[in-house]
Design goal:
Blueprint lengths: L7 E4 L10 E4 L8 H19 L5 H28 L1
Antiparallel strand pairs: 1-2
Length: about 90
């Protein structure tokens, strides 16, 4: 078994109500590059949140879908009722 040890960066001070920490596993750790690695890790986490932002409209899409299903169900019930009476 190989002796594998990885260097990690743990971001603790993320300004998100959902994320407590972000853990990034480094490919390599060049000495003297600590600040550059931290900045890159923060950029990656930030870009992830920027890509995920458009998903916030999913809730309104679900409300529209539920309203359409309810409306169509009522229309089906009413049309079945009148077809049964005739």
């Amino acid at each position: 078994m190989k002796n594998l040890s990885k260097q990690v960066v743990i971001l603790d001070s993320i300004s998100s109500p959902y994320i407590h920490q972000a853990i990034i596993i480094l490919k390599s750790y060049p000495p003297g590059q600590h600040d550059k690695i931290i900045a890159e890790a923060e950029r990656i986490v930030s870009s992830y949140f920027d890509r995920r932002a458009p998903d916030t409209n999913a809730c309104s899409d679900n409300k529209i879908l539920k309203s359409a299903v309810i409306f169509l169900s009522i229309a089906l019930f009413v049309s079945s009722y009148f077809a049964f009476i005739k």
